Amino acid sequence: MKRILAALLAGTLFGVGLALSRMSDPTVILGFLDLFGHFDPSLAFVLAGAVGTTLVGFRIALGRQRPLFADEFQVPASRAIDRPLVVGSAIFGIGWGLSGYCPGPALVALAGGVGTAFVVVPAMIVGSLVQRFVFQNRTGV
Amino acid sequence: MHPWLSALLGGVLIGLSATLLLLLNGRIAGISGIVNGLTQASQREEWTWRAAFIAGLMSAGGLAMHWLGHTTPSPAGVPLLIGAGLLVGFGARMGGGCTSGHGVCGLGRLSRRSLVAVLVFMSVAVVTVFVVRHAIGAAP
Fold it and tell me: Do A67 and B26 contact (CB within 8 A), yes or no?
């Protein structure tokens, strides 16, 4: 039960963070990616705030023997810079650049009743199912 | 609040969320991975924590974006949105993560794999936007 509540709290903070930083607004994302148009640096500030926090927070968390509510840390063990990593990330980048939606912000926009998210979220889920069907349960982060 | 300041604060909240999930449950806050686990057969508690995380993300995020008035849709049309969604879902699973798993969490634990992933998807997305907006001159 503790683990469920911890996940609910973490999800809540994540959702508020995405909304506050306007990441659920695809025009902000596209504005950042459009280096040659009306550049919007917001995404850089979001990443700086988030990674700045995880750089410190993860050090503290992973310095412990085990998590507070679980037996062990489950972090990805793979260190290989392989083809699926590069090709998959490139495919992701094309989709991200076409719509301005990555998974977290798209889910927030869906919950907020934004019409375009109702199209993109089901397509994302279908895309992940197709990947699993093709590659038989390759898992990563 | 200045948009850059709210972006920085929102980022800190996202980083705190990822830190809490790791510190308390020992798990990585990668949204595509968490959602992916929901469509797979798994132990009941494994499924429930994922559902709880997504429920919190969607309810709090959905409410907050209305309070803040950030409800702008994507400029892309329906066929492009479908294609984009398929690519994002497929690519995130093939590459083992998205902006949260590789970006927020992977960079936070100094993973070289995640740094490569972030550099690849950022630069490909920049090129994609350039091609769509400036080379083809299409709307989004």
Answer: yes
**In chain A, domain spans:** 2-139
Q: Closest Cα to residue B127, out of A118, A96, A55, A42?
A: A96
| pLDDT tens digit sequence for B113-124 | 999 999 999 999
Please list every residue in chain B whose beta carbon sits closer than 8 Å to the beta carbon of residue A129. Answer: 39, 89
What spatial distance separates the first Cα and last Cα of chain A, rounded to whole Å? 24
Range list of H helices, chain A = 2-20, 26-33, 42-62, 83-99, 103-111, 115-135
What is the tens place of the pLDDT at every residue in A127-139? Answer: 999 999 988 755 5
Which residues numbered 77-96 in A keep a CB inside 8 Å of some CB on B? 78-81, 84-96
ipTM value, please give it.
Answer: 0.95
Angle at B100 between CA B114 and CA B91, to 5 degrees: 70
